[in-house]
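Q: what sequence does this backbone want?
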């Protein structure tokens, strides 16, 4: 079995099987992440505030976030991050519970509350949702194998073309023969 074509096909076949599940997860979550601005189910659409200049205090932001019971925010340790969008007059308070509270940057009024799935999709996409080491020990090798599948797939695609051209010229693909 020293024929490189046979080995290439076997490696291609077994590599595809080895990465089937991680690659399915990467592809499906990647497609959903591509649409996160278009699908409010993944990431809530951004509202527009009344003023571009943020004037809300940190205490007012926490009070507004506390007013949304489903977000489960009682103190600052319940807040994952705050995203300020001055051009839209918007402040997003994102809780550890993945709830997003959008506030008017000038008045602190709650403009919208919604569950945010994009962070979950991103952690599934890179494998960190499963385990911190899954990112490096499963999803990274799967990416390397998919790259190798791409290379071997191009080779398998070009092989018959090369063979047909050689036959048309009357050449043999075996080394040493003409």
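A:
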């Amino acid at each position: 079995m020293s024929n490189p074509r046979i080995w290439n096909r076997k490696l291609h076949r077994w590599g595809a099987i080895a990465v089937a599940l991680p690659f399915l997860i990467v592809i499906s979550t990647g497609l959903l992440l591509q649409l996160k601005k278009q699908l409010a189910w993944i990431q809530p659409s951004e509202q527009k505030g009344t003023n571009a200049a943020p004037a809300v205090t940190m205490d007012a932001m926490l009070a507004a976030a506390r007013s949304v019971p489903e977000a489960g925010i009682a103190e600052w340790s319940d807040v994952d991050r705050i995203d300020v969008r001055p051009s839209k007059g918007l402040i997003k308070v994102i809780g550890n519970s993945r709830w997003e509270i959008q506030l008017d940057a000038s008045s602190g009024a709650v403009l919208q509350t919604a569950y945010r799935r994009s962070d979950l999709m991103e952690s599934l996409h890179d494998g960190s949702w499963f385990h911190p080491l899954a990112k490096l020990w499963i999803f990274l090798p799967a990416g390397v194998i998919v790259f190798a599948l791409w290379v071997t797939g191009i080779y398998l695609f070009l092989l018959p073309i090369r063979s047909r051209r050689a036959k048309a010229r009357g050449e043999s693909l075996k080394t040493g023969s003409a």
